[in-house]
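Thread title: Can someone regenerate the structure for this chain?

I was given the following input by a collaborator and told the matching structure tokens would be attached. They weren't. Posting the sequence so someone can regenerate them.
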Amino acid sequence: MDTLDKLRILTDAAKYDVACTSSGSDRSGRGRGLGNAVACGICHSFTADGRCVSLLKVLMTNYCVYDCQYCVNRRSHDTRRTAFTPRELAHLTIAFYRRNYIEGLFLSSGVLRSPDYTCERMIETLSLLRCEYHFNGYIHAKAIPGADPALITQLGLLADRLSCNIELPSQQSLSRLAPDKTKTSILKPMSQIRDQMRQSQYEVAHYHGAAAFAPAGQSTQMIVGASPETDFQILKLTEGLYQKYRLKRVFFSAYTPVMEGPLLPALTTKPPLLREHRLYQADWLLRFYRFKADELLSEENPSFHPLLDPKCNWALHHPEVFPVEINRAPYELLLRVPGLGPRSAKRIVKARRLAPLDYDALKKIGVVLKRARYFILCNGRAADGLNLTHDAVLRSLLTSQGLAYRHALESAEPEQLSLFDPSSQTLRSLLKEGIAL
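Best answer:
Regenerated them for you:
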């Protein structure tokens, strides 16, 4: 099989892995190497259909000794198999870079023979890139669960970011759908990576010439929709991973039915893209807005609202907090106002030290009031005489999104629609009207 055929097969097999950010690492070429990586992100290219392409995203091989039910590369699946040699893949990466097709490499792999053997081939590839081709660009590599810790160490010294995918949110789902994997085998390398990153940061700060270990941190990915876990369970796990393993990102991948099996959703099932979107919004609230998972969801209300983002939904469920007076509210409370982000909140705190703020002043300092105006007061006044009662705000938020919310309503599953508060007459009438705009 020639290189082009291998590339076609192994890039297609890698498309279901979404954990491939390309920022957070400084690696300068210093005039002696090829390429560089910067902390603010790398340069991006775009394909003809508008997709952003920055990394060569490829598998080392799609041979795999595991039989994960949801995976297109599982050993029992009848598919074309191939593998790159380390030399082939290193040469291909450099050739693409020199043509300005890519700025870095995202390298994952099926498990060929054993985790150790697979990890050794990945290390050989990265060693060729770093030491022979002197490639200083961004590299994201997958840590193979079950590989020897010494191999994980070598991989982390060559890559900018490591990731070890949890895939499924519970041990029960792993046992059903990925019987060759265990929670322990996945979390063990995550612990090792966390500890070695901490040690490396100390050594780099105190010793000249110390090697950096995974300077861009580590991430993981969870599949959403292949197993029965609720949004609440997924979000609680996400929060725990951030706290315990110092992850840079947790990625969510809506399950796309590509495999048929009694334990999987039917092939006709639509990927839960709205659910994935809500999880990303909630993840943002955990990382930058000081929310806790228990504030957004609970065991009694375990799923996200289909028509309201998590921050708006939280605000509507806390009428005792809103509306807030923009001239007196502390920074932490401003962060919780829908439509206000950390930058806007800091601008408000800084500007109101000079003079009381009104709605015109907020616009002048760059605060977007499209949603925030329903939850704030300026000098005790609502914007444009808005009615800030719960039902009035709810109707305005739903209808202001127009066709987007209409489409969301039409595509929502029955169990999603049941999330609406049945005590709200406005919600019942909106559902009955189909949000007639």
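The first strand starts at residue 45 and ends at 46.
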